[in-house]
Amino acid sequence: MQHISEQSLVDLPSRIQYLRDFIEFTEKDAAVLHASRDVVAPLVPAIVDAVYVKLLSFDITAQSFVPRQTGYSGKSPASLSDLSLTHPQISFRKDFLKGYLVKLVTMDYSKPSSWEYLDKVGLMHTGQAGFSHRVTKPALRVEYIHCAILLAYVGDILLNAVIAHEDLTLDTKNAVARAANKILWIQNDLFARHYLAQKASADNITIKRTTLLAIIFCIFATSLFVARAF
Asked: Which CA distances in Å does 155 have to 12, 29, 50, 61, 85?
């Protein structure tokens, strides 16, 4: 039985190794993703459009695209009603998603920098500056529920496209679908870990404040009791 300590999971390389071992994301899976590039690449524009149609169909997700986006220098939408698939700021965000999807089927999963990139994608959505270009920019926070369900939606589109692909053998479809599913679940954890860490920190602060107030109250009550006794 392999021993995994809770503390080791705080360290990104150790966490990634555990995730890879548990879900069995192997070098073969990485090779399958690389080999699927020619299949996935033509699908990227349609996947990106479908994702943003979905994001703009709910006000709670669309509202994240009203503020000026980091790196975008054009005219920002004034309100939700200005948002559309053809708005320049949405086109700008679509390019980022295209780049992300391409990275999933091209980056070297043997390099720590690849996992650091995926981890930063998760971190940046919590409001912290995951990437250096966001350090001096206004905080961008998207609640975890939206990130998680979006990953599921992307996975559903991608898996359906692979399964329905007429030029792929059954074995190839199975291999690509499994590899893509694994990497998306690992990405999901690299979102969740930052949100959970923030919640734990906030809960810890609340507990400390509550404890401090309780101590102060006890001291005050004791002092009052002693004063009355004498």
From this structure: 24, 16, 12, 18, 21
Structure confidence at residue 221 as a pLDDT band (50, 70, 90): low
How many residues are recorded in the chain? 230
Lowest mean pLDDT among 27-36, 58-67, 106-115: 58-67
CB-based contact 159:177 (threshold 8 Å): yes
The C-alpha atoms of residue 179 and residue 226 are separated, in whole angstroms, by 70
Here the tokens at position 113 are 């920098």
Measured between alpha carbons, how far is 62 from 110 in angstroms, rounded to an integer?
36
Domains of the chain: 6-227 (1.10.490.10)
The separation between CA 194 and the C-alpha centre of its own chain, rounded to angstroms, equals: 9
| Residue 139 predicted with pLDDT over 80 | no
Q: Is 126 helix (H, G, I), strand (E, B) or coil?
A: strand
State the amino acid at position 228 in one-letter form: R
Q: What is the pTM of this model?
A: 0.80
- The answer to whether 155 and 147 are in contact (CB under 8 A) is no
